[in-house]
Amino acid sequence: MNKISKKTDTVWVEKYRPKSLKDMALPTARANGQRVKLAEELTSFITNFFIERKRINRENAKIKEQNKTVIEKEQKDYIQIETDKAAVLLEGPPGIGKTSIVFALANDFSMEVVETNASDTRTRKALEDRLKETSKSRGIMDFISESKEKLILIDEVDGIYGVQDRGAVPTIIELVQNTQFPIIMCSNEYKSNLQPLYNNIRRFEVHSLPKEEVLIIAKNILKKENITQLKEEDLELLIDKNSGDLRGVINDLQGITQGKMDGNIRELILSLRRDSFEEIFTLIRDLFQVSSLRGARNLTDKSDVDYNFLYKWVNENLPTFIKTNEELANAFENLSLADEIFSRIQTNQYWGLLPYFFDLFAGGVALSRKETPEAKGFRRVVFPRYTTGSYFSLNSTQKDFVEKLQKKYEISQVDFIRNLLPFLKILCTSSRKQLKNVSDWLELDAKQKKMLK
Predict the structure, then answer these.
(1) Which of these, 180, 227, 276, 378, could form a disulfide with 222 (CB 3.0-4.6 Å)?
(2) Do residues 118 and 156 touch, judged by C-beta distance below 8 A?
(3) CATH classification code of 26-206
(4) CATH architecture assigned to 12-18+209-271
């Protein structure tokens, strides 16, 4: 039996998020090519921001009083805080602790973090709606009570791209110039379209923690959770597989140790999928909260989780969310029908049936819950017992097809299989010319062209 903690009602990434910078194993960082001490730099940034804000607000108060007594053409412009004193950018691979650094820094200064994700709010209007009032002034409650100062976190600024995002970067710069609160941005990688931002604020290149540091953190978590079954070589394999992603390591540790550990642990670790594990926990829980087929469709539409993986997770976790025998029987019946439909799709290439497959395995299963009350609080999601095998995943030809398509524009595997492939098949079977045009455009090989016939 596993020796696991009974406290399984929180996600470990949050449970073990450091409360202070002094509690963190901080990654190395560089600014303008020079190695810097990140804790000292960020602490200095926050301290100096409030000093500068006080000075500028005092000067602007004088300008405001003067402007009341002079004619319009003699009025002075208000001064703005220098952008490099108002905001900084942390740039580095996902999962290395950038967000944790921001929250720990906020705790050290007794500040409240106001967080937004730039890749979700990419247009000028969306960014303004989310941040403008927050960055410019205090809310009414701040004057009624002694509220905390705010630290604004704009995550995934490198998610800003494309035509729909025009104006987003100038909006961020304008917000920085007028902010009443310090701003920290995070990004995963350098993007040329963010050059105006780089020119205005200080950028710290943050690197992954050394393997030895991640190993120490993993061992400490296992010790606190009273888990003894994972060996050091298992942890090293897990760390190597996550390539410096500390968040990924912690998520995988929780998933493995709170699931079934009666098989080959090494094989289980090798079967983990970094691109879908973190999302899968939330997706599975949300799927059993929906009350309509449309709701289930929307969840799977937004997800880029491999549908083979998602199918197995739904199958494994049904009894956690559906309790009565009749409901379970209906759910497994729908799952069985979905399996049969996909078998026909794979055998005969009937991709037009794919929407029915999704409706049965996601919507049909979720809507089988009629009498079981809606889940309240935490429900533990466990790994599927069988995670190997590629029967239900994209084959190599399909994956190569998607990769070629992704060079033209962004599309997920799910969106490709579910929506675009059926459309391309209809388009290309209408005439040989259309098939040739698509094939030439994507540089398809013979096997990939066969998918469109």
Answers:
(1) 227
(2) yes
(3) 3.40.50.300
(4) Orthogonal Bundle (1.10)
